[in-house]
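Summary for the steering committee. The consortium agreed at its last meeting that each partner would contribute one worked example illustrating the joint modelling workflow. Our contribution is presented below. We chose a case with several input lines so that the handling of multiple components could be demonstrated. No manual editing was applied between input and output; the record is shown as generated.
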Amino acid sequence: MVGEVRRMDFRESLEAGALRGELRKLMADMLPDDFLGAFTDDPKDFETTQRFCRELGTRQLIPLAWPPEYGGQERSPWDQMALREEMWAHHEPRGPQYMTVNWVAPALMRLGTDQQKQRHLPAIAAGDEVWCQGFSEPEAGSDLASLRTAAHPVDGGWEIHGQKVWTSYALLADWIFLLARTDPTAEKHHGITVFLIPLDRPGVEVRPIRAIVGPHHLNEVFFDGVWAGPEDVLGEVNDGWRVVRETLAFERVGIARYARCERLLLEAPVALGDRWAALPPVLLTRWATALVHTRQARLLAYRVIDKQTTGGVDPADVAAYRITVTRLDQEVGEVLMDAVQEYALGGAGDPYRRFVAAVEDHWRYAQASTVASGSVEMQRILLARSMNLGRR
Amino acid sequence: MNTELATEAVDFERSVRSALEASGGFELVQRAETEPAYRQSIGDQLAALGMWDIDARADDLQLAAAALSCRTAGWFALPYPLAERLAARQLQGAEAVAVASGASPRFAHADLGLDWFVIGLDGRSAPVVTAHPAVGGKLGRFVAPVELGAWSRSADVAPMVLVLQCWTLLGMLQSAQELTCNHVRDRHQFGQALAAFQSVQFALTEVSVATQGLEELCKYTLWAVRHRPEDALTDALALRTAALEAAETAFRTGHQLHGAIGFCDETPISWLSRYSQTLRRLPFGRSDTESLLAGRISRFGFYTPVVEKVGE
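What follows is the complete predicted structure of the assembly.
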């Protein structure tokens, strides 16, 4: 704006503050005291998140940032940040819905046909439709473009064969955002197409993988002659790589891991009481330092959001943030496990049960933070390129 | 919310950097080491740039100009107590302030003939009545012991001087990072630039992550000392914690990747590394800083929008 002078200001807007207040009240009313998210062995936890999502849906809080024509409020990126922080700090009561909101829906808005938008966006906004991401394969992890799942042309469409792996929430999801190779003769990054496939379509099989991170985080998804029609394609055929690049750009800062770290760190002295007071001073300094790191991670996220509002996000800024926040997750896991020590191993007689369960859950999930959504090594490579080191 | 510093302040920093470059850049510290009185003329050069007209407490713009000037001073390891002078405006009768404790503390440039005051973390201050000659150690060339007058309650400027010193350190680290990146691009071994080795790239990304995280925290804390004064000391100690941690990463990597040439006085990284020591060890080092911070957070909490403040 002409004549406008921007001054550095870290105050949160009144709107964002009010949103936090509304969300906290809602969570206090709807979530059990020992809630640790949707991804547990107890199916009631997923049901809780579904109820919570529907309530958010009635308040138009799921499509917070969406344009009004899709039922959204077009709220600012800072309000979205406040929402993300509150949700993640309180064990993401939206369940797997966060991923759908963060990038599946924006991708549909940008590239979907009218029919696809009409089919999916109202259902997502109401909290009724859950998606999973069909990207990684046994031979295509960080090198995603090596994927082999193939869609062969058949009369009127395609027949899909192949396997996806590490697919989070596939057992809970209704749809998969699937990458498949449609032109085997094309170069690696070409000949890939995005398909939107319902998981109850014949030929799709989901198998859970038991893992340290807990249930629902990792699954295999098999495609055995799954049919797809032209109406299932998102964007152009063979242009899937560009779709994915643009799509993931919506997810800039991803989940606000630092928010849960901060909440757990600040809860520790209260939750552990006398035990906290008896901890060795060296652990207190690690705790204080971890709090400094949470603040740094938050500020690196805010830098990205700020540049998003002015249109100049640098992928290197995102990489620096992701390296910081994923490491923070693991640092906080170690500090807090050191504080709760043997109680994290389970067993009877734990006077700090609720907090210890949260710490144990955090530590297990944090093991994946430097691997999931682009490994920390990939982030370093991106950052090194931006620093003009090695090849461009 | 706006995380960017005012463009006017950034422009001012650019002009300060140009002026210091024109005056010799790293040659300033090299000359002052052999000719300590040369530091006075550095003060005169800063005066000519309008530096002593800045009132860091007056408004956000002047505060940003002060911080960015300190960063540029750090970039060249400028042998002058810029942060300490800019923070002193708030204290009646003081030309420069240093955080210190004890009856006979010591700090850098105490011998410079300024009206120094020593500041405690408890909001008290004491005038320096006698400044002894600098001790002249390899890592503390301009550190000088002082004798103090009586302590009294005064304006609480400790957070401000700690924060501006962290901005100076930030400049040193960013300068060290750039020097190291330039070196690994230029230096070839085994038929390729050092920068082509992934182990070298990854080491430098560690430095970049550390300095980027520090820069954002510097910006936030600068804003916070003015707008959230109730937490100023905790925030300043948090910043110092991050700065000292980042300094270890940046200088260790800088020395390692420069190889033997980086230890030599002909390379600026050697000067930066040595002159960072006074900022890193005084008024207290990393462990003491972390310990002080842990005590403050335990008593007074740590601000975040996610959790209601806990503590006393």
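Residues 198-227 of chain B form the longest helix (30 residues). Residues 95 and 115 of chain B are 5 Å apart (CA to CA).
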